[in-house]
Specification:
The chain is of the alpha+beta class and 74 residues long. The chain is 47% helix and 14% strand. It has a 3-stranded antiparallel β-sheet.
C-alpha cells in the first residue's frame, strides 16, 4: 500500500467524489481544484507526486491533461 500525506489523501478523496476512477471519467486539475478547494498549484504538484507514486494516471491532451485514479489507497 502507498502511504499518503493529508494533502495527497484530500486530492484522492476529491477525485473519488468526482468519479475519476477510470480513463473514461478522468478529470482536469481545474475540476479537482474546485472540488478540493485548494490552490491550483498545490493540486497540480500533488497530482504529479501521486502520479509518481502510481496512484494517479496522467493523460496528456491538447488542452488540459486529464487525471484518474489507478490505485485506490486504503
Amino acid at each position: 500500500m502507498v502511504e499518503l500525506n493529508p494533502i495527497e489523501q484530500l486530492i484522492v478523496n476529491a477525485m473519488k467524489e468526482l468519479g475519476a476512477t477510470k480513463e473514461q471519467a478522468m478529470k482536469t486539475a481545474d475540476d479537482i481544484t474546485k472540488k478540493s478547494n485548494r490552490p491550483k498549484s498545490m493540486v497540480t504538484n500533488t497530482l504529479i507526486i501521486l502520479a509518481n507514486k502510481g496512484v494517479v494516471k496522467r493523460i496528456v491532451r491538447e488542452k488540459a491533461s486529464g487525471y484518474y485514479l489507478v490505485q485506490l489507497p486504503a
